[in-house]
Amino acid sequence: MRQLCSLNALQVFEAAARHLSFQKAAAELDVTSTAVSHQIKLLETELGMSLFRRRPRPLALTAAGKQLFPAVQESLDTLAVAIAHLRQFNTPTDLTVSVLNVFAAKWLVPRLPDFQQQYPEVDVRLQTSNSAVDLQARTVDVAIRYGKGHYSELEVHCLMKDTFTPVCSPRLLVDEQPLAAPEDLARYALIHFEWLNYGSDAPSWKNWLALVGLDDVDPDR
User: Fold this and answer.
1) Residue 72 domain flag
2) Nearest by Cα to 165 from 211, 102, 200, 130
3) 3-state secondary structure at position 60
4) Are residues 57 and 72 in the same domain?
5) According to a count of CB atoms within 10 Å of the terminal CB, is the N or C end of the chain lower?
6) Helix, strand or coil, per DSSP, at residue 47
7) What is the domain range of residue 21?
């Protein structure tokens, strides 16, 4: 079992040793100089040794005080950090997330119970939208969007990467004139998706046709 001195006395000692002044320690701790002197005396009595040399002035640490001071200061700092972290975790935090409609329904919402179990102090609020969001306006904390991720003024993390490939009805593969090769696309109307948050390099028929070398197929048909 650890045999420790009074935490209050150690805190008073740390302040007095740091300032080398009972009066300044009293002002910092919002107590009287007499209270500081009393706590120091209790600590010295418990340890059986003097920690301060009071005469001649100014106040100075004894050899024992010099040995004890850094250990007490480090311990109190460590304790203060740990308590601050605990208080932070126990403080309810609102997290507003702007997310694409389909992504919210298919990916994010099913995973929220696990997140909330791990972080019960976080109150997650979802805003579903397919439009771009202005994070500088501070109406939302996090936005999940499709994009290239090149946003210089924001902190960006890639959640996953998509693979885009042309698809068609199975019926078109067995027609009298089946869709058997990419160049056969010239005979069909192409279905397009309008990207809201991409630039000119958004996944599109134009980019895919150029990639496979079919410059003679109209991507806008």
Assistant:
1) yes
2) 211
3) strand
4) yes
5) N
6) helix
7) 7-89
